[in-house]
Design a protein that fits this description.
Elements lengths: L1 H28 L16 H14 L8 E2 L2 E2 L1 H28 L12 E2 L3 E2 H28 L2 H78 L1 H4 L3 H16 L3 H19 L1
Antiparallel strand pairs: 1-2, 3-4
Helix pairs in contact: 1-2, 1-5, 2-3, 2-4, 3-4, 5-7, 5-8
Length: 276
């Protein structure tokens, strides 16, 4: 029993490293630079190791059953469908758990057709089904035979060393990601606060602008009436009247208007400076 556990743990690490390598290579082609697709610091994608162990345990024996229907050999077809289903369930749950724990997503299929919440999609489902057939019929038998050929003591030592390194890597990665999650939560809260403040500021600014405009209009109208009653001012040209209007409207007709307008403008300026 212990030997089987060690075997599957080593299998998990092996396929995690292989999956990390191939996915990183695939994702590095388009940007033409190396893209580390691993969740951990080290060269591992645990989802591939988990998938390999799950498929081996769940479908390893099933893939060898002689299932026929009307003369058709259906075992590969059923293996394809079950493998795709199991891989989708694993991928969906992994995405969901990681998002809940770390407030982040490591893949998103939202831009692909026939996706579910961006966590799984039809294209990758077909990939997983094909990969299941290749894995169970061609890769896993040879890799398993190779691992079983390693002496038990050597296999145990290798597994323990890798497990210790993996555990340290996992702790550091979880700590880093938890810190990132805290920062993300703070940024989201600050963004909501700024948006709320922006709305309140805009509404208040509109109110201030309307109030200032009303005061200016009232002052100008009062000054216009005062000038119309002034015989000397009535003899001025239109241009001089406009100049006179600018000089006396705010101070003779309403001496306190200048201070009130200045106070409102200062208040608005303070609000905008706080926002920016």
């Amino acid at each position: 029993m212990v030997e089987k556990i060690i075997f599957y743990v080593l299998t998990f690490f092996l396929y995690s490293a292989v999956g990390w390598f191939f996915e990183s290579c695939y994702c590095s082609v388009r940007p033409r630079k190396w893209v580390n697709r691993g969740f951990l610091y080290g060269p591992m994608c645990p989802i591939y190791g988990s998938g390999a162990v799950m498929l081996s345990l769940a479908l390893g024996k099933f893939s060898k059953l002689p299932i026929y229907r009307h003369g058709w050999y259906l075992t590969p077809v059923l293996t394809f469908l079950l493998g795709a289903l199991l891989a989708d369930v694993l991928e969906f749950l992994t995405s969901l758990v990681m998002e809940k724990l770390f407030h982040a997503r490591w893949w998103d299929y939202s831009q692909k057709k026939f996706n579910i919440q961006g966590r799984i999609c039809l294209t990758h489902t077909l990939y997983w089904g094909a990969a299941t057939l290749i894995f169970l019929y061609f890769i896993d038998p040879k890799v398993s035979a190779l691992l079983w050929s390693v002496p038990a003591l050597a296999r145990t030592i290798i597994t323990c060393v890798i497990f210790a390194v993996f555990l340290v890597d996992l702790v550091l990665t979880v700590k880093k990601t938890a810190d990132l999650r805290k920062l993300t939560v703070k940024i989201d809260a600050l963004t909501r606060e700024l948006n709320k403040f922006k709305t309140e500021t805009s509404e208040k600014a509109k109110g201030l602008s309307a109030e200032i405009r009303e005061q200016l209009d009232a002052s100008i109208e009062s000054g216009r009436k005062l000038l119309q009653q002034n015989k000397i001012a009535a003899q001025l040209t239109e241009k001089a009247q406009q100049g006179k209007e600018k000089m006396i409207r705010f101070f003779r007709v309403n001496p306190g208007l200048r201070r009130r307008v200045t106070d409102k403008l200062d208040e608005l300026k303070e609000l905008m400076e706080r926002y920016h």
